[in-house]
Fold this protein.
Amino acid sequence: MSIDWKNYQVNNLHDEMIKDVGIPRSFSKEISEFLTSLSNEEIEEFKAASDLAIQTMGITFRVYSDEEGSIDRAWPFDIIPRMIDKKEWDTIETGLKQRVKALNLFINDLYNDQNIIKDGVFPGQLLEKSKNFLPQCKGFTPPFGVWANICGSDIVRDNDGCVYVLEDNLRVPSGVSYMLENRQVMKRVFPEMFDTYNILPVDDYVSDLYDMLVQLSPRKIDEPEIVVLTPGTYNSAYFEHAYLAQQMGAELVVGDDLIVDENDCVFMRTINGLSQVDVIYRRIDDSFLDPEAFNPDSTLGVPGLMRAWLAGKVALANAPGSGVADDKVVYAFVPEIIEYYLGEKPILPNVPTYKCINPEDLDYVLNNIEKLVVKPANESGGYGMLIGPHATKKEHQAFKKLITEDPRNYIAQPMLMLSTAPTMVETGVEPRHLDLRPFILSGKDINVTTGGLTRVALRKGSIVVNSSQGGGSKDTWIVDMESD
Amino acid sequence: MLSRVARNIYWLSRYLERAENTARIMNVNSNLLLDLPKHIRLGWEPILEIITSSEQFHQHYTIADEANVARFIIADLHNPSSIINSLHHARENARTIREIIPREAWEQINSLYLLAKESQANSLNRRHRYSYLNQIILSNQAITGILAGTMTHDEGYDFLRLGRNLERADMTTRIIDVRSASLLPDINDQQAPFENIQWMSVLKSLTGYQMYRREVRLRIKRQDVLRFLLLNLKFPRALNHTLQQAEDSLKDLPRGKEVIEFIQSVRSHLEATHPEQLNQDDLHEFIDEIQSNLNIIHDKTASTYF
C-alpha cells in the first residue's frame, strides 16, 4: 500500500497538503515525495514506532465506563503532519492576538462600566439571559484586566480556502499537552523531515504558561506558589492536568488539598503544615469552583475560594466568569467587539453568522433555513441544533416556529465544508476532515502557540473531531519556507 | 509533599499489606486444620476474630464453616477487610497518586486487583485456593520489590514504609492474641495436645517458622515463640522490628518528634514487660494495650501529616 498521490481523491474539498490530484501544495512537495518513497514495511514501522512512543510516554485520555470507573485509552495519533506556511500563520497569529485582546477588554467592560451596552453596540438583554455571566464578579478587575488568561480558539478552513474562527474556549480549554507530546513523537519518527524543513518549535509553551502565571501572583515574591487544580483522576483531561503540573514543577491539587482561612488567604495542606498558595491554574468549571459561592453540592471545589479571589489574595486562571464571552450569541458579535474596543477591522473572520435578533437576518434565516445550521444561544454540545441540509421539511417548520417565537435566542450559519489532510487508514492514505486549536496566553503580554493542536475526524466523511467521538490528532508544523 | 498524597501512599501500603497477611493466614489455617485430629475442633471462628469480627460475619452467615469463612474473608464485599476490598482500596489509593509512584508499580497493583477479582471463583474452591492466595502473596511481594527498587526513597517512601510496618504490627499482635487464647493451658509447661503444631502454625502465619528455627533450635515453646514474635529486632514481622522500622521512617520526615517519642515509649514498655512470661489473661490485656497504642500511633501520624 505504498503511497501514490494519483489515487488520493481531493474531491471538491480544500486539502491542506494536496492541491489537486497528484499535485502537492508549494510547501508540501518534499513531504509528499518523502511519503511516496516509503515502502509498506517502513510505513508499518513508523506507525508502530509512533504507537510505542505514545504508550511509553503515557499519552492517554480517559473514557468513562461503568464497570471499571474510567480507563485510559491511547489517543489516536496520525503520523502525517499537518503543515501551514509561516506566512499564512503569521496572519492567523496576529488575528488571534487581536481577537483575544478584544474579548478580554469586553469581559472586563461587562463586569465593570458596561460601556459597550451603553453605547448600543451590544444588546444588554443578551447579558441577562447569559448563564455564564457571574454577578459576583461585578466591579472586579483581575491583573492586567485579563480574564481569559488561557484561551483555545477553534479554527477551521472552508473549501474557499479561507480560515475562520469557529469558537473561542475561554473557560478551561484542553488539548495543549497533546500538541506538545505530538511533537516529541514526530521528532522520533521523522527526524529527517526536521532537517528538510524549517519547522518552528512548540516547546516553549510550558515556560510561557509558567511565566504568565507568575505575573498574576498577588504576593510579589521570587517563587510564588503555583498549583494546578484538577477535578481528579476521573476527569477526561486528567492526563493533561498532571502533565502540565509536572512540566511546570507545580503541585497538582484537588479541592480538598486547599483551604481558605479567615483572612481570605489560600493554603494547601502539606506534610510540613499549611503552605500559602498564590496562583491557581484551575481546571474546574466555574460552577464547581466554590460551594460557598456557587453550586453548594460541589465536592470538587474549595469553600471560600471566590472570597479569596475577590479579596485579591490569590489569582485564578482563568478568572471566574470569563465564560460570559464564549457563548454563541456573543460569538456573533465578536467582529463588532473588535471594532469597538480596538478601532480595528477583524483580521480573522468569524464564520458568517445571522443574528435572528436583527429583523433582516431573521428574514433571511426563515427563508433559507434548509441551507443553514441553526444554534440556540445558551446550549452547548450540539443540543437543540438544526442542521438544515440534513433535516426534514417538518423539522424546518418546527424550527421556524421556535425562532419566530424567540428570535433573540437563535443564530444561524451556513454549513461549512471543513478542509482535509492526508491521513493513514487501513488501506493507505485518505483525506480526513480537521480543525486547529491554537492556545493563546494572556498576561502582561499575549503569546500564541506555534500552530496548535490539529484534531482530525478519523471516520470517513465525519466532521466530528472530538477525542471521545472517533477523533485523533496530528502534529502541526508551521514551516518557514523563506529562510534557509 | 501534599498531605493527601502522603495519606494515599500510607493507605496504599497498609491495604496491600493487609491483603497479603490475610492471604497468608487463610493458607496456614487451611493447612493446620488438615493436620489436627478431628476431636480438636479449632475451626474457622478464630480466623474471623483475627481478621474482622464474628459479629460482622454472622450478620451475613449462620455457620462458620470453611466455605462460608473463605468466601467472607476472601471475596465478600460486605466484609470491609476482605482481600478483594483491601486490594480495591489499594488500587483506588494508587490511582490518585499515579504520578508519584513508578508506573510499573501502578500497573502491577492494577493487574493484581483485576486478577484477584476475575479469578475469585478459584478462591472458593478448596483445590485452587492455595495457588490463588499464593499468587496474591507473590504479587504483593513483587510490588514491594518494585517500589523498593524504583521509587525514590524520599518522603513518599517513608510513608510507604510507615504504613506497611504499622499494618504488620497490627496483624502480628492480632494473630498472637487470638491464637494464644486457644492454646490453653499456658506457662505451666503442661503440653496441651498438639500445642507444638499450633504454635508452629502461628509462626507460619507470619512466615516466621524457618527464621525462628534458625534463632531457636529447641523444641517449639510458647515462651520462645512469643519472645521471637514480640521482641526480636531482626525478623521483619516481629512487633519490635516493625515499631523500630516505623520509628526509623519517621526520622526523615518533618515534625515527626511527637510520634517518634511515643513509639519509643511503646517500645521501652514492650521490652521492659517481658511479655513471654505473662500468663494468658495478662498477655491478652497487654496485647490490648499494644493494639490501642498502635491506634494512637496512627492517630498521631494522621493528625501531624494528613
About this structure: Residues 184-188 of chain B have pLDDT under 50 and may be disordered. Residues 3-35 of chain B form the longest helix (33 residues). The interface with chain A takes residues 1-4, 6, 95-96, 98-99, 103, 155, 253-255, 305 of chain B (CB under 8 Å). The two ends of chain B are 11 Å apart (CA to CA).
